Amino acid sequence: MDNLILEQNIANKKIHFERAIFISWYCSLGDCTYCYMSTQKSLISDPNKAKRSTASILAEAYLCKKLGWKVGNLAAGYGSYTPQSILELVKNIFSITNEKIWLNIGVLSEKTIESLVPYLEGIYGAVETTNEIVHKKVAPNKPIAPIERMFKICDKYNLKKAMTFIVGMGETIDDFDSLKNFIIKNNVDKVIFYALNPIKGTMFENNNGPEIDYYVEWIRKTRNEFPNIDIVAGPWVDRVDNLHLMLEAGANAITKFPAIKLFNTIHAKNIEEEIKKAGFEMEGSFTQIPDINIENIDNFDFDPILKEKIKIKLKQYINQLNKN
Ligand code: SF4
Q1: Residues spanned by the domain of 277
Q2: What is the CATH number of the domain that holds 229?
Q3: pLDDT in tens, 58-89
Q4: Which residue has the least CA distance to atom 6 on ligand 1?
Q5: Does the reported pTM lie above 0.85?
Q6: Has residue 178 been placed in a domain?
């Protein structure tokens, strides 16, 4: 989102939802100590089989557009897609949403980035924490330097840069200066604040995640320091009842809510209420299903077999939305 749109949205008091579309469950690193993928790596013998089907990804992108959600990013572990396969997928999604896309699939080479430029808004660096000691412990093989080098390539091609930050992995609020310096040094356009979600089978499985006030403090300090960047709050379901605090602290978008699975549930309704409570209006809906004509998939320039597969997936997703 450029600064003008950000300012307009804040002035119009609009909050949008950024859906991260998962495109693979494989990661060639697979050893970050907080990550679900690290619990799966030993179970995946063929990375190709961990890829989600193209039809299912495209159906989800179409659904996002219809529901007024943004495709926040395409997410996968490192090394899960070849340069050719990611280009093809990104082109197909772009043809559905007609909006440039963010990628969150690890550090990419300049050659790959260059080929994707026409379809990309920007690239995520999965930084996760700027506390060096914590970083070494939680992401031993995902150093920050290659991410910063990739950000330089983004600058060369006028792409935006986002960074992820997981609150609650051992840092303290005294580490805020290191985040601030990182944002300034790399001219980061968007920060996504996740609250640590303890995953079974990881070193954090018995952790409760951060206290809400502490999580919100990261958002508040960042907004105070950087009035013009995008700040995305990514609380897990158990924290949506405090979403108004995150918005009041300065987040201008939300993510990380399993919005299809939990469509029109009490959690979805709570989010809409929380957005109102903070004095904002939500773009799109977590509770109202718009008219979706599955046959409109025929209008896209896809292979006929793929079109039929997308329609089948779309029907499944719409059934899921109707379940609650
Ligand atoms: S690089 Fe990303 S996907 Fe891979 S294990 Fe680490 S956090 Fe998980």
Answers
A1: 26-323
A2: 3.20.20.70
A3: 999 999 999 999 998 999 988 889 999 999 99
A4: 32
A5: yes
A6: yes
